[in-house]
Every structure is written in C-alpha cells, then in structure tokens.
User: What shape does this take?
Amino acid sequence: MRRSPLGRARGLGSARAGAAHWWAQRLTAVALVPLTMWFICAVIRLKGADQAAVVAWLASPVSLVLLLALIVATFHHLQLGLQVVIEDYVKGPGTKLTAILAVKAACILLALACIVSVLKLGGA
Amino acid sequence: MRDVRDALMVARNTDGKLVHRPLSPHLQVHRWPISMALSILHRASGCALGVGTLLMTWWLVAAARSPASFETAQWFMGSIVGKLLLFGWSLALFYHLCSGTRHLWMDTGRGFEKAEYDRSAKIVIIATIVLTVGAWIVGLAAG
Assistant: This one.
C-alpha cells in the first residue's frame, strides 16, 4: 500500500480513523467483564425489590459510578458491534448508512434514558 | 465448468479429491465446525444482548418514573415470560462474555493451533453453562 510519509507516520489509513474502532471495542470489552459480573450480582440482590431498595442501592456513590460506567461501556460497545454486523450483512450503501445511523441514534437515546434515570434515582 | 467463475470454486477435499465449493461463508452448505459455530454465536448473542438492553432501559426508567411503574416492571421480570427473557439474556450474556474473553486472548496472537483452538472453544461452552446455571441457582434461592 502506497502512502505519503506523513500518512504513514499518522497511521490512520484510508478511513482516517486507524484502529480506533477496533481498539475501542476491545477496551470497552475489557471494562465490561467486571462491570457486568457486578451488575448481575446487583440485579440478583434486587430481585422482587421495591423502588425504595433501588434508591437505597444507588445512594452509594460507588454503585452510582459503577452503574454509569456500565451504561456508557455497554452502549458504546453495542453500537460498535452492531455497526460491524450491519457493514457485513446489509447490502446497498444507502441502506447500510441508514441502518448504521439508526442503530447509533437508538444506542445514544437508550444510553441517555438510562443515565438520566440513574442520576434521578441517585439524587432522589 | 459451466462458467469461468467456477474456477474459483474448485478445491480439493481432505482426501485430495477435486470438489466444487461455493465461496465462503455459506452457512447452508458447509459443515459446522465448532470454530464456525462459536464465531456466529458470538455475533448472534451480541445482537440478542442489544435487544436485552431494552429490558435494562425499561427497568431503570420505570424505577426513575414512580414506585408503581417500577412495581409493574418487577412484576413482569418475575413472571414466566419475564423469567424466560431473563434466562435468554443471561445465557447470551455469559456466552458473549466467555467467547469475548477468548477473543481477547486470541487478539494477543495466542491459541490459533487447532488443538488449542478446539480446547478453548470447549472451555467457553462449559463455562457458559456453569455460569448460567450457577447464576440461576443463586438467583432463584435469593430473597
């Protein structure tokens, strides 16, 4: 592959993003291993609980921060993964772009809904 | 050869016999080795978990809205349909977690020899079953 010396030094390739997508997917994956294990334990402890128990759970800044980290990592990882699936299987550049943008928009909206809810509960 | 493109589809099988092969990946015609099954399942479970985030969002939004709407969400999670969805979610999650950890390990360049590859694949399947069953034993016994 021919690149200018500056292009090679930057190492960002033809898409001008380099390995950013690949790297972000791995980074969020590593973060999600302990975070999801913690979340499963928390969900099991909240089995059948009322809303007051959730408020009590999120009154702790540790739970609040970990849950926010889980939400951000989950939806970031999800949109990166779904983008690759769409790029591989959806035919037609227009449909492909539309599908990717729709997935990204949905992920951002769901993430915001979760974050706002969690902050509201944590501040209640 | 019916078409010039057929030239690309001729290969030898393990016995050395010439055979016609479609270009990969053709899910309908290839035998499913464990490597292929795991790879496809990793994607499928990832997509399933994407649907599962709707459940998580509903749960958190309901809790933020009012005690009554959270009670409805909790009732649904405890119902038969809710439990089935949660079981599917936990299975997909543990599978994606185990398979993803294997991928991270292989990203370091290790585990590509056939014997290691198959062994780590089996570990993923066993770990998924153990974690899912374990989580449900704890979950059903809790509170």
In short: Residues 58 and 73 of chain B are 7 Å apart (CA to CA).
